[in-house]
Amino acid sequence: MEISNVKTIYNFTYRMSGNINVAETLTEKVFSICPGSRKDDVLLLKLTWEEFMRYYGYIEFKGEEPAQQALLALPAELRCPVVLRDILGYPYRKIAAVLDKSEPEAARLVSDARRRMLRRTKYQNITG
Asked: What string of pLDDT tens digits covers the 128 residues of the chain?
């Protein structure tokens, strides 16, 4: 298994949940379902997203820091694209492929997530 793919899946699941145990469990599960060393990162992220939604999609996760709280307060459907774009640096084309959406729809989801996070952080007065 390729180390960069393991890191990507772990980082994605950790940012989606804010929970180390969830990140470890889901990363192991994804690689047990889809073993191999040369897997496409989009395919792995798509599988991870589906597994996350199946097992953790409706759990409310809490963060310790205000920015993490704002991220985890988002519905999973908005948290995923903003994690992929703003934390992992994925282009809209790949985000759209992970979510089975069009590129404009993926961009709109990222924009909506950013707007919600900004409102929450301004309300909490953490942005200055």
From this structure: 567 899 999 999 999 999 999 999 999 999 998 876 567 889 999 999 999 999 998 899 998 888 899 999 999 999 999 999 999 999 999 999 999 999 999 999 999 999 999 988 775 544 44
Architecture of domain 3-123: Up-down Bundle (1.20)
* CA distance readout (Å), 40 to 23, 45, 127: 19, 9, 37
pTM of the model: 0.89
CB atoms within 10 A of CB 68: 14
In contact, 117 and 74? CB cutoff 8 Å = yes
